[in-house]
Amino acid sequence: MAQFFLRSKREEGEAPLYTKIRRNGMQMYVCTGIKVDIREWNKAQRSFSAMQRYEQTEEGAKVHDLQMRVMKAVDTLYAEGKINTKEDKAIIEEAMNNIVTGGTEEIQQVKKIAEAKSRKYVVQFYENFFAGISDGSISHGSNSEYSAGSVQVWKTFGRYLHEYCGGNVTFDDIDKPFADGFTQFLQKKDFMPNTINKNVTCFRKLCNLAAMEGYNKNAVSLKVWKDRTVKEDEKRAEIYLTEEEIDALYNLELTGENEIVRDIFVLGYFSCQRYSDYCRLREENFVTYDKGLGQITLIQKKTGRTVNVPIVDDRVYELCDKYNYDFPEISEQKMNLKIKAVAAILAESTPSFQEKYVTVLTAVEKRSEKTYTKLLKKKKSGSKFTENERKWFGKLSKLAEKRNGAPLFERNKHGEIIRPKYELITSHTARRSGATNLYKLDVLSDQEIRSITGHQSQKVFENYIRIGISEQAQRVGDKILAAKGAKKKKGNAKC
User: Fold this and answer.
1) d(CA 23, CA 377)
2) Which pLDDT tens digit goes with each residue over 156-188?
3) Domain definitions of the chain by residue range
4) Is this prediction's pTM over 0.70?
5) Which architecture characterizes domain 243-361+409-424 according to CATH?
């Protein structure tokens, strides 16, 4: 029996089999052209029984048949005297190619059938889809590649999909109880409503994509996914900084990383962009046009849209000169941590940063409070802590004391979570503050502001602007009084 082997160093994918031919004192290594799955072939090499199991699979049986036919062809060529020197290797390769070409087509057909069957399984379809958006072979309907942020959203969804579905759920199994169960599964993880809606949206899109490609024939699966209406009291407080607070932040004496974080945040404020955009601004993004007005021009990473932001504050150029347009790189995680620390420093001299806002806890914060509650009960009962519990109790106790915890986080008389403004600031507050303060100027239309922020939807933009109910009422009242005053003045003029 001839020996077949791989020469590839890869551990996955496909590779051709080679064989060693020894005849009439000659030795040749010939590529058979028989392609095999590297992982499955290597598993089959572990033992005789492993090879037998491999040859019982559809692909293994085809490969074994091709091996037999290839070696029979080699025997025939030698018997007919057509192979006399190593230069005749080309004759062997041609014969093998003629045999394998037909067989390969059969194998590919088997693979296509197997793949079509596997893609009816929800998890398998997801895996193929995710691999495609990750390597760029699958794009949006507009033929644009999925952004890094979108790929991350689908990756996170995939974790929950695997956990909820396992590998045996097909699209035919999806009905309303199944969809409701997925929502309840996410709720049990204490996720915020927006996070739940994001993952439900992914599942709905997955069902629609599978239907478009012909792998999902279940019409019910396209109709059962419903987003939850997120009530105001279920949303995390989304603050903005006023112009006066931005001035105080800019003038705050800082050093080291705190200074860098503050400067990049302020640049984000004046640009009205997402962190993924304002953290990568470079000299080429700052341009000056004929009339001398400077602009920040960039292609948004998330949307791919081009935006042009007029530079109307000299502090932008002060920051550019300070860093010679080479702004330090800081991760978003570090930015979110450090900007809170900077805001806490500012809160010592700026009372508005100490104001408390009603908010909700994240899933991580909820788990921390549950852990602390259990540890408090254990301590009260007189039970001993493990070393790990003792460590966590000490850490959480300090946090509870700092935040006037009830038990871990401060609450108002209604039992609602309240947090000081300086704890609620994030890297994204820069963009929201910039957009909100432009809106408050009352000189730009919503469309003009959206041309700066890149918001395509008016509805999303309206939800984005952080104008409180009382503040909005004050704006409306001022306009009414101004209109009445103008009308009265006009009437007096006629007299």
Assistant:
1) 82
2) 999 999 999 987 899 999 999 999 999 999 999
3) 4-118, 122-230, 243-361+409-424, 468-495
4) no
5) Orthogonal Bundle (1.10)
